Structure formats: structure tokens, C-alpha cells
């Protein structure tokens, strides 16, 4: 498949060594606004797409084809602005990962992000995450790298090992994924400034950092992240959170209800607005049946 101007733009931006700031986009209007305000890149947030496009929490309920079609629409609106696209775990086994990469590449994304969580995954800033073996995820990366036909399509490897296994393991995995060929490395949810600094020092690859409002990671300035050597900073919840606040304000004004009763402060509270508590209760109700198999 021939390359695209957006992919060339992202590669060129990465080569400059300047921090790439990518706000979260999840629908047509956020993509239009990203382009019209002159953003250098945009990030297709899986959480935002799940919530805004399907009324679902980010707990592995949206499918590969649903995400790829959303990516296609966003790419069409963004034009030459590169789209970094969340692809969760790749949506299944190794052959599913191959299909996912093909779908995303055909949609025109500039970068595809894959993570080492067990399926079904959870938002990186929720509790109770689990990860697959590092060797298993390296096979996922191999499949993804083999599946792309345009080398300008960046493959981003994310590890969620910090929460369940600790920072030492997360850094070991990050370096292993870099050796396996990932173009960019993403250590999800460091929990302090010291951890952000340690990742920058010890991971030998271009780095992406995820800055989520109300999440586990302290929000560092672009200037400081640039100084530390980070390559990409994504802000998935910034436009989403502001949009939700505005909509809640409008709804509450109409019927005189108190916005404070609904405002989310943390990711879990946001996902409860789109039914996470009910979905997790349903999941728990089926757990005894699954263990009985």
C-alpha cells in the first residue's frame, strides 16, 4: 500500500526530536476542530470512541471493525494531520491482530497502538488490569510489523505492567518490545514524577506518555516532557472531559438539576456515566459459569 502524507508528516515530526502533542479525537467535530486549530497530530482515543460512538465504557466491548471504521472517518476529516489510533489488544489472537493492522492501515492511520493487556482489556487508568506474558505480546508485535505494508505506519507498543507487576517489570517489557521492533514505546500509567523521569532515562526508544485528567499519572508540562526526551504526549481526555462538562451543564440547566451530582472526577466515574457499573455487575454474574467450564 502506498504511503500517505499524514504518515510522512508523523515520521518527519518524530525525526525532529520535538515533542508531538496529540489531543484526543473521537468524532467528526473533534477531528475538524483539531485540524482547524492547527494541531500537529491527533489521537483516536478508544475510551472516547467507546463512550461517544457506542455509549459503552472502555472495557473491551468495542470491536476491531467498529474502531477501524471510526478511524477511517477521522482520517478523512483530519486530512494531512496524522492520526495515532488506539487498537487495544489487537482484538484477539495473532491472526486477529494481522486483520486489525490491515484494517487500520487501509483506513489511513499514521500510527497504530497495541497493548499487552489480557482480553478483555480495561482503560489504562482503571484498577484490576492484567497483562499477558511478555513473550506472547512480542508475537503480537511481530504479527503487526509483518502485517503492515507501509513502513511509514508506526507501530506503538504499550505495556500496562506497571500496575499489576511494578515499574521494574514495565521497563523491562518496554525495552524488550523496542528490541522486538516497535517504533514507539508507551509505558502506561506511571504514578509519580519520579517514575516518569525513570522511564525516560531507562527505556531506550522513542517514548509516548498518556496524560489523563484525573488519572494515575501526574500531568507534566510539555516543556518538561521535551526536556526529558519524550517523543509524543497524548491528551485523550482533555477535549472529551470539556465536552462532557458542557453537555452536563446544558442538560442540568434545562431541568434545574445539580450538575455536581453527575460530574466525574476520575476515569471510573466517567465510565459509570456510560454504564460501566452495570457491565461489570453483568460480568461478575457470569464468572461462576465461566469457572465451571
Polypeptide structure, described:
There is one protein chain. This protein has 293 residues and is α/β, with parallel strands linked by helices. Helices cover 51% and strands 12% of the residues. The chain has 13 helices and 8 strands. It has helices spanning 5-16, 28-36, 46-54, 64-78, 94-107, 134-147, 162-165, 167-179, 193-202, 222-228, 237-255, 267-273, 276-291; strands spanning 20-25, 42-44, 83-86, 111-115, 154-159, 184-187, 207-210, 232-235. Strands 1-2-3-4-5-6-7-8 form an 8-stranded parallel barrel, surrounded by 8 helices. Strand 6 (184-187), helix 9 (193-202) and strand 7 form a beta-alpha-beta unit. Helix 2 (28-36) runs parallel beside helix 4 (64-78) and helix 5 (94-107) packs across helix 6. The protein is globular.
Largest sheet: 8 strands, parallel, barrel
Describe the global form: globular
Output the strand order for the largest sheet. 1-2-3-4-5-6-7-8
Instruction: Report the helical percentage.
Output: 40-55%
User: How many whole angstroms does the radius of gyration measure?
Assistant: 18 Å
The parts where pLDDT drops under 50 for at least 5 residues are: none
Number of strands: 8
**N to C succession of SSEs:** HEHEHHEHEHEHHEHEHEHHH
The fraction of residues assigned to DSSP E strands is 5-15%
Distance between the termini: 44 Å
Mean of residue pLDDT values: 94
**Category from helices, strands and their pairing:** alpha/beta
Number of helices: 13
Oligomeric state of the chains in view: single chain
Amino acid at each position: 500500500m502506498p504511503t500517505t502524507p499524514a504518515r510522512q508528516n508523523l515520521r518527519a515530526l518524530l525525526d525532529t526530536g520535538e515533542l508531538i502533542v496529540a489531543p484526543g479525537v473521537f468524532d467528526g467535530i473533534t477531528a475538524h476542530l483539531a485540524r482547524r486549530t492547527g494541531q500537529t497530530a491527533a489521537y483516536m482515543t478508544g475510551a472516547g470512541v467507546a463512550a461517544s460512538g457506542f455509549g459503552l465504557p472502555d472495557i473491551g466491548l468495542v470491536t476491531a471493525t467498529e474502531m477501524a471504521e471510526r478511524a477511517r472517518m477521522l482520517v478523512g476529516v483530519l486530512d494531512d494531520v496524522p492520526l495515532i489510533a488506539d487498537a487495544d489488544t489487537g482484538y484477539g489472537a495473532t491472526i486477529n491482530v494481522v486483520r486489525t493492522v490491515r484494517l487500520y492501515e487501509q483506513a489511513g492511520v499514521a500510527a497504530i497502538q497495541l497493548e499487552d493487556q489480557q482480553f478483555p482489556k480495561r482503560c489504562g487508568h482503571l484498577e484490576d488490569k492484567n497483562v499477558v506474558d511478555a513473550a506472547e505480546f512480542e508475537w503480537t508485535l511481530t504479527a503487526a510489523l509483518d502485517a503492515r505494508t507501509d513502513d511509514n505506519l508506526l507501530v506503538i507498543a504499550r505495556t500496562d505492567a506497571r500496575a499489576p507487576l511494578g515499574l521494574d517489570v514495565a521497563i523491562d517489557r518496554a525495552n524488550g518490545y523496542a528490541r522486538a521492533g516497535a517504533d514507539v514505546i508507551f509505558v502506561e500509567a506511571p504514578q509519580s514524577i519520579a517514575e516518569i523521569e525513570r522511564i525516560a532515562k531507562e527505556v531506550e526508544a522513542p517514548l509516548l506518555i498518556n496524560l489523563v485528567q484525573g488519572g494515575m499519572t501526574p500531568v507534566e508540562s510539555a516543556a518538561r516532557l521535551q526536556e526529558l526526551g519524550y517523543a509524543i504526549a497524548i491528551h485523550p481526555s482533555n477535549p472529551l472531559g470539556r465536552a462532557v462538562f458542557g453537555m452536563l451543564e446544558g442538560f442540568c440547566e434545562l431541568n434545574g438539576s445539580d450538575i455536581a451530582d453527575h460530574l466525574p472526577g476520575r476515569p471510573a466515574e466517567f465510565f459509570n456515566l456510560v454504564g460501566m457499573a452495570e457491565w461489570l455487575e453483568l460480568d461478575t454474574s457470569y464468572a461462576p459459569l465461566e469457572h465451571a467450564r
